[in-house]
Amino acid sequence: MSTPDPQNQPPSSTPPPAQDGGFPAPPAPGPAGYAAPAAPGYSAPGYPAAPQGYPATAPVPGRTLSIVGLILAFVLPLVGMILSLVARSKLKKAGAPTGLATAGFWVGLILTIVEIIGFIVIVMLFSSLFSMCSDLGPGVWDVNGVTYTCG
User: Fold this and answer.
1) Dist. CA 34–CA 83, nearest whole Å
2) What distance in Å separates the CA atoms of residue 26 and residue 112, rounded to the nearest whole number?
3) What is the DSSP code (8-state) at residue 21?
4) What angle do CA 42, 46, 49 make, to 5 degrees?
5) d(Cα 2, Cα 77) in Å, to the nearest integer?
6) What residues does 149 pair with on adjacent strands?
7) Within 10 A of 131 (CB to CB), how many other CB atoms are there?
8) Could you read off the pLDDT tens digit of each residue along the chain, which spans 151 residues?
């Protein structure tokens, strides 16, 4: 009986026995023509790279400005209305939806009109009060059931 030649034998799928440190030796390289898998992001020679997911979208100019304009339309209506108009212009140029900017414009416009009307009413009330006191003079006066204190 002859002993088989180790060079003509196919590689074994089981790892060789443990060496000094108790860890098995790394597996022997595979048959000729076999290549290890390519690292992520790189393609193997002769093959196209695999797609890596969706591309990042570019930020739309005016989107953040429209949100800020809508929020400011409730706090400072005139400023919010102006910012919303600027945002709407930028969004239209970019071809993006203009809903938030349009809402900010209308909210700002309506609340600006309400503020103007409120300012006019307050000015009229104070002017009538001051004119009444200028007619009556200093003191406490009761006119038609309303008490005026002028000083």
Assistant:
1) 63
2) 77
3) T
4) 35
5) 99
6) 140
7) 10
8) 556 555 666 555 565 555 556 666 666 666 665 666 655 666 556 666 666 777 777 788 899 999 999 999 999 999 999 999 999 999 999 999 999 999 999 999 999 999 999 999 999 999 988 888 888 888 898 888 888 888 7
